[in-house]
Amino acid sequence: EEERHLHIGDSFFCFSWYIAKAPGSREAAVNSLGLVTTNFFLILQQSSFISKQFFNLGQDPIIKWSPTKSVQGDFNFVKGCWEIHLTDNRVQSLQNFWIEGKVVGYQNCFIASGYHTFHDVEPLLPPGGREVPLRLTRGSQLSVAWESCSLSTALLLSDFGTFITHDAFGTLVEILVAPHRLASPAEGHFTLTDAVIVEGSILFLMDGSVYWRSYDRLLRKREEDLPSTGVRGLQYRPTCWQSYPLRDVELSIIAVWTDDQLYLGRSTFYKKADRALLAKILRLPSSCNINIAAVAFGSRPPEVGVLVEACGAHDSSDARLFLVLYDEEAGSWFQSAFLAKLKPGSLSRGPFRLRFVQSALPSVLLWNKEALYYSSQNNSEYGLLRTLRSANLTAESGGGSIHQVILDLSWNVVVKMENNALYFCKVGMDELVRLHMWERPGTNMALYLGPKGQMKVLRQVESAIEVHRYPLSMEVKSAVLGTAHTCAYFTFQHSMDIPAYYLDMGEQMELWAQIVYPENMGVNVQISGHRLDLLHVATRTRFEIASQVCTKNTTIKLYHWRDYSKSENYREEVQVFSLFSQTSGVVTLEVVPNLPGNTCDLPSNRISHIKVGCPPKRHIRISRPWGTPCEKLDLKNYSIPGSVLSNPRDQDLVVDYDWEYLGCLFRIYYATPFLPGIDLYDGDTFLKSVEANFIVWEENGRTDYSFNASMETVGCLREAQTWSSMLAGNGSFSSGTPGEAWGPHNYTSCFEVTPGVLGELSQPYEILNRSGNNFITWSQVQSGIYVFSVKILDPNFSFCDLQAVFAVQTYGVVTSNFGVFTGTTAMMITLIVTGVLICTYFRYIKVFREMLNNPVVDKQ
């Protein structure tokens, strides 16, 4: 037995979270999750007591089931636990939850965050099923494959059976299949080459064909979208892709290949490459013999690496290796510089395997049975991983071939040989450290990396599997004790705590990174990224030194700015309707120290993806004017006079009012000008009030409204855009879809001097702004209901197509019945006056006649 040196340290994490489903929650409409803190040596009653103490100290845990979705619970003081109710059916079917609490200590102890898994038992066999086991060829090494986004679900392949686990090998269940329409094998079992898990189903590779088995446990041959024969390999995505902020492309999670064809997919597969395409990418003659040697998913989630073995460009008998990459996001192929500088024949023979390192730039490990090659940061560093004595690991280990290469999120690389010799290094280092022997050479064992980052040893004992933890950190510290392996820094940490961020136009984000190191070590924070051209990156470093210990605090400011008002093709540039854009997309940012070391600790989240574009839940809302309460009236429909429509007609237009779509009406007095207030939201989170220009249009074609300001009043230097001019200039858009005719893609400002005719500046100015003096004015003839659509017009405000609707009801206009009453009253007054005049006339005639008939005689 080799001598070991134990490293003993103190931890502040004395407690862990425990999660369990409440009884009967599977059948209930609501899932209840009880959450308690527990020490490994405490019974439930003591755990309940400690949970109450943490609650009193302010503890409030969060359960996360995706990088962007979480829920908090309510503390049940009687039970002494947190209860969380999940009503989403999709959430109830999830198995993996991440529990994270606040930094609250109890007796100088904290609670460690971590994963927890629920798993379901295998379904029963269908009635009359003929169950058959699946096995590797006799004498094969154990093989492990896990599900991409559920590391606790894994397959174990052996020569005595195939097993599945849903709880990180806490329990194992043997997989049995019913042959369905397939003939039962004479030896009593199917012989496997490989297997992978994909969305609840399992794909098996047997005799060059792919078979699949779903929850009904029937084994079927996969022929509808994959070759029926000649399949050379299956490869699963080893890391989760769900945190990648890409909505328009469904990333593949399984790769299947033949000698010269590549298929990618999930539940459905599509051919992505063949011999002719690979020859074109590599610029090789069509007569060249091309074979796919290995396939692996890339350093970034959209990338897939293909190792191609082909003849040289000038000599068909001269074979060499090439690495080409396919970007599923961009839909493009490109050749990697890795292997390009190696001479033909300098690599030992295959078969080869690939494994990419999670990184902003392509970083890959390539190995065969005896040697391990590496390439880092887009081939800026490359070579052979070697021990102090040799790069041939077969000779170094005493005759064993490379069996497994395990890579975790902290960049730990563990190489396991078939004779159970173990080697270790950190990504970025070129020297392997031989670890102490853990199992005897004759033991059949495999390594498995669990969801909590804990490495486990799976050991075959006769026809059973034993599982135990492998203390990697302790083994590494013991192996390097007394050697030259040191770390150039003490600690390194940063603020990139989530895997995905979103940046819209005009927004910025700040990150920080801190590294503490001994004096005169020359350690810096290294920032690298993919598509950094989409962002402006500004860094500021503050340096401190005390007692020969240096501290560097680096602030990283990221923002996107470009003037899109002059863009010739706005929609393509901002990716409104196009898939790949030169000014929007996903930036992958990586922050690491510039000097790695085999004994250095790295945070597991060194990489974040920043989506420069429209955030998924961003939208605008119209703020309700102050003093206008929301009253849901008994209104089902209303009428619009046909004379006020954009296309006038004799009959009135009857419109149904959709309360769910439009919400409450804004009741506005007809003589009061109105300016809509627009607020920007992410989901239900208020961000800010919108100060950008916007336009409105009435959805039903009403024209009996206007604007109080003219183009001249607001200071236009030339005629501004109007709805009439925009609709006339876009003949392909009808008046029923005016929002397509005018928007950020064709907006031009009237405040810029351009040569030509000034135009008619007395027209109403139809563009609104929160800080402007332009308002909507209403009809002075009749009250009515207006349904407006509003759209942000500023091309530099957002990547999103921001639109909203609101409804206004005006009141206070004198109705037409009052006009009839006024006319009638005037008529009556006229008749009375006329009657008085007539009476006066006839009275005058009578008096005049009497004077004629009885003249007055002057007595004088």
TrEMBL record:
The chain crosses the membrane at residues 818-842. GO terms for cellular component: CatSper complex; sperm principal piece. GO terms for biological process: flagellated sperm motility; sperm capacitation. Residues 133-479 form the CATSPERE beta-propeller domain. It comes from the Eukaryota. InterPro entries: CATSPERD/E (IPR028751), CATSPERD/E_C (IPR053814), CATSPERE_beta-prop (IPR053816), CATSPERE_Ig-like (IPR053815). Residues 646-845 form the CATSPERD/E C-terminal domain. The keyword Repeat does not apply. Pfam families: Beta-prop_CATSPERE (PF22844), CATSPERD-E_C (PF22850), CATSPERE_Ig-like (PF22849). The keyword Transmembrane helix applies. Residues 492-602 form the CATSPERE Ig-like domain. It is a single-pass type I membrane protein. Keywords: Cell membrane, Cell projection, Cilium, Disulfide bond, Flagellum, Glycoprotein, Membrane, Signal, Transmembrane, Transmembrane helix. It is found in: Cell projection, Cilium, Flagellum membrane. Signal peptide: none annotated. Belongs to the CATSPERD family. This is CTSRE protein. It comes from Atractosteus spatula. The lineage of its organism: Eukaryota, Metazoa, Chordata, Craniata, Vertebrata.
